[in-house]
Amino acid sequence: MRQTLFITGTDTGVGKTVLTRLLAQYLRQRGIAVAALKPVCSGGRDDARALHAALDGALTLDEINPWYFRAPITPLLAARLEKRTVILAQVLAHIRALQNSFAVTLIEGAGGLLSPLGENFASRDLIAALRARPIIVASNRLGVVNHILLTLEALPKNRRPDAVIILVSPRNPDPAAGSNARVLRPYLAQQELFTLPWLGDELNPVQALKDARVRKIFAALTKSV
After folding, report:
1. 35 is in which domain, residue-wise?
2. C-alpha distances in Å from residue 135, one per residue of 10, 60, 187, 192, 210
3. CA distances from 78 to 9, 72, 83 (A)
4. Active site includes 16?
5. For position 177, which CATH number holds?
6. Catalytic residue among 16, 38, 216, 223, which?
7. What is the pLDDT of residues 167-217, one digit of tens each?
8. How many separate domains does the chain show?
9. Count of alpha carbons within 13 angstroms of residue 5, beta-carbon side
10. Is the model's pTM score more than 0.90?
11. Per residue in 124-135, pLDDT tens?
12. Distance (Å, rounded) from C-alpha 52 to C-alpha 145?
């Protein structure tokens, strides 16, 4: 059965690309045909290039990231500076055209769940239209409980029960990092919650995927694949 996982976050720079890249490589190691897309981005194409490397040529950079804008601001405004527009229907058509060739499609949003990606749409609208399983990525630090609960509340109601939460451990954890998962769990219904360990200043995907803790998380995320 084909699956679509949408990797969103509580903010920008919380670890969405790290998770998407590693998950893509984990699935490829298992012999599963996987696409990893970042349909819209602005300010730099490094995230899309990381996904391109993870797929080892399965998709071109432009298939992974067809809408790219130079200004380091929200894609909606960056596109307008270039007198271009991004339309929800076009993004959905691009994703759906690729989905048929892969068992699993990973889609990485830009910024947080409600950050505008184009004209009158955000990651939330893509999740709803694609009926994708949301994966919420957040930095495990003080304040993340509120950020995650707000993000869950903002998800489409029919997608909320299937959401997965990934707390990404920082290099230097603050005092709240050790208790955030424990505080969150009573507020969750069916949602799964995992903590991704600190993987170093420079990500080494080969070494990261040898970590039993990482593999356990990915096995749980893809158990029905």
Report:
1. 3-221
2. 11, 24, 17, 10, 22
3. 20, 7, 9
4. no
5. 3.40.50.300
6. 38
7. 999 999 999 999 999 999 999 988 999 999 999 988 999 999 999 999 999
8. 1
9. 29
10. yes
11. 999 999 999 999
12. 32
